[in-house]
Structures are given as C-alpha cells and as structure tokens.
Amino acid sequence: MELTATFFLSVLIEYWYIIPIILVIFFFKFFKISFFTPSVPSLDQFPVESYGISFALDRLTPGVDNNRYDVYLSNAFCKSSKQFILRVIEENAVPGKGRENNKKHKSSSEQNQFEKDYREIMISAINRAKTEREIQIDYIARTAIAKMLIQQIQDAYDTFIANINSVIWKKELSSRYASDDPIALKAKFYKMRSNKWQIIQTTGEIIFDHLNQVDQRELNGLRKSSSGVDGILPGDLFLNPFFHAGKTDDYFMMETYDILPGQRIEDADNYTLLLSSLKTRFSELIFMGKTKLSDYRIESDTPQQEPSGKNANPLGKDPLIWDKKVDAWIKQVGNVDILFDYISTKKRYISLKKEGGEKEELRFLRQMFKKQHGMLMFFYKKLENSGMIKGICAYHEISLIYTKYCPPLVPRMLLQFMTIPSARKAIIKRQRRVSKISHVPFQFGPLKRCQKRVKWLGSSEKKERLIRFFKGFFRYHRDLENFKLMKKAMNMICLLKDEKHVRLSRVNNTLYEFLLPHELGTEVKQVINHTILKADIRGSTRIVHEMKEKGLNPASYFSLNMFDPITQIIPEYGAFKVFIEGDAIILGIYEREKRPEEWYSIARACGLARQILLIIGHYNRKNRKNNLPFLEIGIGITFHNEPPTLFFDGDFQIMISPAINSADRLSGCSRVARKIMDSMDKPFNTYVFQTASNEDVAASSDDISTRYNVNGIEIHPQAFHKLSQEIKLRPVECIIPEIQPEKIKFFTGTFPIVTGQNQLLIIREGTIPQVHEKNFSLIALTPRTYYEVCTNEKVYAYFKKHVRE
Fold first, then answer.
1. CA-based angle 718:724:729, to the nearest 5?
2. Which of these, 43, 45, 56, 55, lies nearest to 329 by C-alpha position?
C-alpha cells in the first residue's frame, strides 16, 4: 500500500501541470460548454428549396347540393380495383404471402387490369382538362379515385374478415375436419383482426404505389405536355401514410417516421412545440442579422419591405409571410441534407481528396461541411438549452427495442425511462408488481443498458441522431399538412352511386364523369342554352263548362285537338315537353356544345309555333262544322343563354328557368286589351302596349307591358337577337294593301328542321305605343319594339309573289 501511494504521489509531483487541464475538461464537459463554437452561417449561403403544391378545386362547378362536387367513377374500374385490393389483402394477411414474397413473382392479372383501367381513366381526364383548359379536372379525378380506393380498402378488409369468419364457422360445424383445425384458424383470425391497421396500411401503400408508378411511367409526361409543370403534383401527395393510418399513436410515429413526439398538450416535446421551436430558430437567424427577408421573396398580397430603423422588425410588416416561407422549407425534406448533413458532405470531401479531386470542388465541399456543421450546432444548442435534445437522441435507441417491451409498456414510457430518473423508478416498481401477478419476469437489463448508452452518447453521435430526427420530423410535417389539404378536398367530393342522383347531376351539367372508353357509348354533349315555347289556351274554363253541360268529354277534346297532334310534330323541330297542364303546354329546345346542327333553337321554335297554330286552325274548322267549341291560344317564345336547372320528382323531370316565366308573360293576353282590340279591324294577332308611365317602365326590372295575343306568336327581343345569329335574316319594309296602308317592317329567312328540310320564316317588327289605360287611345310611340312570328297567309302570299329569296 505504501509503495502504491508513493508511486502515485511521485506521478502527481512529476506531472502536476496535467491536473488543471483535466479539471478544465471536466468542468466544460459537466456544464456542457464547448471549447469552440462554430460561427453561424447565413441561410443565403445554402441552396434551400421550398415545397409548394398548386392544388385546389375552387374553379370547378359545385354539384346539386351546392356544396360538394359530384363525381361518378367508372363501374368497371371500381370493380377491378376491388378485386386487386382483395388480392393484396389476402397476400398481406395470410402468413407466407407477404409483400416481399409477392415481389418475386410476376404481376397478377388483377394488378394489370387495375393499372390499365386507371391509366385509361386518367388519360381521358387529362385530355378533358386540356380541352376545357382547366387543370383542376385532372386534380378532382385523382382525388376522387384516391377517396374511392381508401374506402374500398377498408371495405375489402371487412369483407375478407367476414369470409374468414364464415370459413371458421363452417369448419366448426363439419365433422370431416379435425377438432384442432378450427382452433388453428381462430388463432390466425385473431392475429388478422389484431393487425387490422397494419394490414390496411400495407395494402394502401401497395395500391397507391402502383398508381404512382403509372403516373411516373406514363401519365406525367402527358400532363407536362398538356398543362405544363403545374399539372404534375408531387408523388408524396398521394403516397401519404396518413391516408391509411387508423390512429396516429406512438407505434405509427416510430414505424413510419422514426420519431416519438409527445401526443399530449402538456408534453414539452409535442409536435406543436417542436415545430414552433424550429420556426423560432430560423427567425432568430434573421434577428441575428444572418439573413435578409429580401433574399427569399414569395408570392403575397402584402408588399414586402426591408426593415428600417433601429427597432424595426426584421421579419417585415407581415411576419406571416416569413412563417409561410419557413414552413415551405420544413416541408422540403431534402433541405435537411442541404442545411445540416455535414457528416455526408465530409465523407464526400475525404473520398474525393483520396481520389485526387479538383481543388475547386474540394474547397467547396470543405467550406460546405463547415457551414453545415455551424448551422447544425446552432439548432443543437438551442434544442439542448430547451431540454429537448436528450429525448431526440433517445428516439433511435427506442426504435431498436420497443417491439420487445411494447406491450406491456408503450414507447412513450420507454422514452420517460431513458430521460427522466423519477419516471424510471416508477416504471420499475410498476413492472415488478405486474410481474408478481403474471409470474412473467420483466428483463430490465437491456433497457438499462440502452438508458446508459443514451446518457453517455458522444457529441458526434448526438449530432448524427439530430440529423436523423430532422429528416423524420420534416417528412412528418409535410405529410400531416398534405393530409389536411387532401382530407378537405376529399370531403368536398361526393362520389355518386345512386342512379337518380347521377341523372339529376348529369342533366344539370354539374357531374364530373370519369369513365372507361367502352363505357362512354354515345356521348351526350352538355347543354349550353335553351329555348322555351309556351302555348296558353284562352278560355279553357269556359270550354270545360260548356262541354260538360252538353254531356261531352272536355279531356278528350283537348287531347285530340291540341296535345296529341302537337306531340306528333315536336320531334321534327328537336323539341321536348317540359310541362303540360290543363290549359297550357310548355316545350323546350336544347342547344349542346359541339353540335352546330342543333344551333337553330329559336328558328325551330318559331317554325313549331306556326305549325301549332296551323293545327289549331285545322281542328277549329272541323269543330265549327260539328258545333263544338273552338280553341284560341297565345304563344310566347323566349331564350336563356345558360343551361336550365333540373331536378326529379321520382321519374318526372322538373325544369326551373327564368325563360319559363318570361314565356308565360309573352303568351298572355290582357282582358282589357282583348275587350278593346276585339272591336277593331286588326291584320295581326299580337300587339304590345305601354300603359304605364315612362318613369315606371324605367324603374321596373320586369316587363310591365300590356299584351294582346290571340292565336299569335310573340318572340322576346333577346330571342330575336339569337335568331339573327342562327340564320340570315333579310329586312323587308313594304306596304301590303290587303293588310294595311302603312309600311310594315319584316325580317325573313329560312331554317332547317331536324330532317334537313328548309322552312320559311317571316317576323314582323312592331313599335310599342304608349296608350291610355282605359281606352287605349294613343299618347306617343316609344322607341321600344316587339316581334311577332307572322301566321297571316296574306303575308306569305305577298312574299312569295313580290319578295325574292
């Protein structure tokens, strides 16, 4: 002992100068003080990239509920996707048929059909987006397919489990099987159910990976040529693990992102606090004068200005602008390598130096890894001071052992065991109590060894794990924000399946259909506008009363004399019935896009109206001979340069359109006007008067004119303007002695009916006079005009004889 003491004393005396050095090192190590602190570089020294997605659906037309977008996907594609999903679930749920094993075999027929159908549907969607110059059509197609597949994966899992359960039930009832066969199946069944979200997540990853491969291999080139780079969305947008995660618990975080942030608000390392800490660190770089806001311009409605003055805010007038920019940096996972990964850069430098690389490149790499190290140390020190670095460094150790201890523990408890001494003691006591009850010993040895490794981690190892944490956290933040974006978009999409809803949305031009080529059939083009014709019977109540008094059937009278003959001729003019009531019939004519042969709706409505009056005149002559009432009608023709609004009452289609109300006014006849006009000699059947003052007419948005319309056809001025675009109208002013001595202004032209035959059309332009309301005596002529389709045979005879075509 004396010899040993003497030896150590002699050593201390000889090497006394080393003792202060050891004490200084211990002091700096114990209080975590660095000898050399690298300078913090400026952010503008790094080629930092921003993550951005120009994804939106706001320019699309809402569906029939005026809230969501109506989408109908191909039945054949839904069927093929269901079959492929079931196959993938079977391969991942049944032992020995995992994904890795499946990769060794050739692709299945279900996979080939699924990819083929997806490719064809998306090519159609991309081409439609190009034709309509609306990239959001491509976006909604991809989003709707993603929504459908996510739901199908969960439904397919439920179907698969139900099928397995049915097999177990049958085996239990069958005497042909051994008694232990159902027990083995039950064990597998329980494992499949307990691994539900793992199976769903793996299946979802495989399915969406196939979609991404088709996008990358075949569709993105077409998108780029059709819509530019904006048409190509990043692949990670749809390869998002959140789509298939049942719950984002500790297991999900460890297995997917290799991080373990707190899940509770009170946790010092929860996601919100970690994100805020990172953003604060970037902001501090600005306050330190290391980076100018002007170096990172981004699009904003608020103009960015350089701070001025001693106490100016370095973030500018709107700090949210900088916050958005920093957020875009964090979403770009590659920025971790650019900003912090000095280890990889240093390895490249050493390797290139051994190979005798160029001096310029070596100098660049050497400077870069020093800058990266300085940037990493800046964040490292800040996180260390906030107490977060110890937990971050423990994430990696937990990822190696958590499967052995969870359950009964949870990963978060393992983190507490490694970083909080008081929690460590509580966990040990708890597990010892559990072991006594379960008689299963709990092995604390490996757990304590991990805790010691975390405690004595060297500086370089801590930095390496911080880089690893940044990569996982950046990816988690990107995927979480993308999931919120896509979830909102998916909630705005209504996947229609009910045929009634599909039909309702289709006829209202609010349905986005994405079909396979063989499902298209004869494509029905969208309606771009519509024309309304209303024929209103005069005195229908009087006719019904007179016929019932004579014991006659008024229903058959109206049917045989008006409704049935009109039904026979409307196909010739491309018309259809909108609505029929006891004393009126409303007809419509559509014009559809890319169908110029249909763009004669006003001309055909005028020709149809004239034919209706000819039919009424023919039957009136017969009815007079048979002592039956005769019919008088008034017809109004209007036009609306938009598709109508349609809905269904059962199978009955109902139209809502302002053109119907307008046609109702034009087909009407004032009782006062009729009483006065019936006593006059009049050559035409339609006259329009202004009985209100000019001030009242100017102040009213409605047509308050007074009309006389008995067996006449009035065209709305807007409809007449449309008619002048459909056919060549020739203006003709002439005097027809057989009609009246004054000049009459006409417009004439020909139009084709559906069968291709041409018919002559003559329109009279009349001036609306202002008259006294009681006796219709003339006050003055107004500048306003009205238009009547001529039915007077004397006019047609005159034109045939005197007016050349």
1. 140
2. 43
